[in-house]
Fold:
Amino acid sequence: MVERFGTKGPERETLNIDPGFPVGRCWYLAEDAHRLVQVQQDRLILNWRRLDTDTEYPSYTTLREDFRRELDVLLAFIAEHNLGAFEPAQCELVYVNHLLAGRGWAARSELANVLAPWSGRTSAPYLPDLEDVRLSWQYRFEEAERPLGRLHVNLQSAVRTTDRLPLFALTLTGRGAPVGTGVEGVLGFTDRAHAWIVHGFTAITTERMHTLWERQE
Structure:
């Protein structure tokens, strides 16, 4: 997906049938299985996965440096084999938050306890409790009166695989073009996307949840 401005929302990729041999996607998994590097024809992705452990989330600064090292390795390979110039077109930073039942909410109908923009009210008492929830919305950010990128918010009800505990999966994605050229342009955008996500998460979640999380200013 590529963010476009002056049109309705982002441009979505289309499916094409290629008669040639498909180019593969490579996964490189760290020994602890938490970090995963994905390399394919049109992107480089660094994932951190909590899995079913009590491992603490690493900071953005830590993962930023990890990503930079992996990108430097890729660029060195590109230069060694004369594969062309590095011209990034799009950057993306994603945070996935699992909000477990029992902390601020119990039933899906109590979504208003979690999301500030969601009232939970209907105009008539006809409907039963919510069975499932899928919400999606976005915000456009500008810099120097020019569009820079978008913050996409997605929420979906789910259950934790280990114990079937209900949860809300709240995903925030900052996406847009690099801020400048080369590696610094990529990291310049992810720094901005990180700020959107951190402040955006606070803005869309309720003060009730902030109190339970003991959020620090």
